Amino acid sequence: MHDPRVSDIRGRLIDVSQMSDDDISHVVAVLDALRDWRAAEERLSQASRRFMKLGDNDMRALRYVIVVTDRGEVATAGGIAEHLGISTAATTKLLDRLERGGHIRRLPHPRDRRSSSIVIAAETRDAAQATVGREHARRFRVAAELAPAERDVVIRFLAELSRTTEGDWAS
Predict the structure, then answer these.
(1) pLDDT of the chain along its 171 residues, tens only?
(2) Same structural domain for residues 79 and 143?
(3) How far apart are CA 73 and CA 125, in angstroms?
(4) How far apart are CA 151 and CA 154, in angstroms?
(5) Which burial class, exposed, middle or buried, applies to 20 when counting CB atoms under 10 A from its CB (0-12, 13-18, 19+)?
(6) 2: which of 34, 99, 120, 141 is 20 to 30 A away, CA to CA?
(7) Could you tell me the sign of the dihedral formed by the alpha carbons of 133, 135, 141, 147, in that order?
(8) Are residues 27 and 67 in the same domain?
(9) Pick from 10, 29, 52: which residue ends a domain?
């Protein structure tokens, strides 16, 4: 579907008149590989959420708590709300759900009596590391195997690709 020779025969969206068939095929291969990676990433994300019986924001909140705690900082509801870009009311519901599921505990904040600290349950931390954490480690190793110049190309490509999703129609 990414091949303009098939999906845009008249060249209304993509002008490939100055490209060779080999170049077009190579670009299509890049986009196909990106599509395949996105599909694999989505399958992993869905499997992790099913395994842990959690939604996307739940998983993102747990990852945030793990990272903040590992840095020696105190995770709070306000920090989670800011990280997820959701309201404090939505954060309270999310934390209530995670607490009922045994994934987190709310404890008194060590320095701010008006606030609570959010602590992740050991079983949840272990499950997250066994699923999502292991996959992140694999991706890190793949990126580490690239030469610095190759990483720069990938970074530039992905940054440019990210900017293409910020079109007027997306807002």
Answers:
(1) 678 888 878 878 888 888 899 998 999 999 999 999 989 888 877 777 676 778 889 989 999 999 999 999 999 999 999 999 999 999 999 999 999 999 999 999 999 888 899 999 999 999 888 877 888 899 999 999 999 999 999 999 999 998 888 665 555
(2) yes
(3) 16
(4) 5
(5) exposed
(6) 141
(7) negative
(8) no
(9) 52
Write 55-59 long-range contacts (CB < 8 A, 24+). Answer: 57/84, 57/86, 57/94, 58/94, 58/97, 58/98, 58/103, 59/128, 59/132
Contacts of residues 120-125 at CB distance under 8 Å and 24 or more positions apart, as own/partner, are 120/62, 120/65, 120/66, 120/69, 124/52, 124/62, 125/66
| Residue 88 in tokens | 């404090």
Closest CA to 23 of 3, 8, 6, 9: 3
Pick from 29, 4, 2: nearest CA to 14: 4
